[in-house]
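Run log // design_07
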């Protein structure tokens, strides 16, 4: 029996992220993704928050880090969130700019040249690389993909 047969359905349950300042990260993820705190641990030695939406856990934050996210180390490359429309991507971009968030590329970028999907690529307060994208609506009027032969989300 192959592993595909054993796992009839498969989707990401939630993503756990180490952060340096739990309150700051809660504020960021609530503002940008509209997540709500489902549970929070406030013990000085075990601070965490479970963030979700519509009754579904999306991100867990664990305050157990120092420094910034090491993009050159093995592990998480980036975390991507899909929205339904280009308007939602642009609304998120405006909010992120108001928050002073750093971007990897300027504006909405197609995933590769000629693709209808694309998004914005940015970092959270700890330098964790994030993406908000849509599957359709990104066309030639958007920014140019940095490399037409590779996924934009892979190189930032």
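design_07 sequence
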């Amino acid at each position: 029996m192959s592993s595909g047969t054993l796992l009839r359905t498969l989707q990401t349950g939630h993503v756990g992220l180490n952060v340096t300042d739990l309150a700051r990260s809660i504020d960021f993820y609530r503002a940008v993704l509209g997540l709500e705190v489902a549970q929070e641990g406030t013990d000085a030695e075990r601070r965490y928050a479970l963030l979700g939406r519509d009754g579904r856990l999306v991100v867990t934050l664990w305050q157990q880090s120092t420094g910034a996210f090491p993009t050159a180390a093995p592990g998480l490359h980036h975390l991507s969130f899909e929205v339904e429309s280009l308007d939602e991507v642009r609304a998120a971009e405006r909010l992120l700019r108001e928050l002073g968030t750093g971007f990897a590329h300027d504006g909405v970028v197609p995933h590769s040249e000629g693709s209808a999907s694309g998004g914005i690529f940015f970092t959270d307060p700890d330098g964790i690389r994030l993406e908000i994208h849509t599957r359709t609506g990104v066309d030639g009027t958007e920014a140019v993909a940095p490399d037409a032969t590779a996924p934009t989300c892979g190189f930032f």
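Residues 76-156 form a domain with the 2,3-Dihydroxybiphenyl 1,2-Dioxygenase; domain 1 fold (CATH 3.10.180.10).
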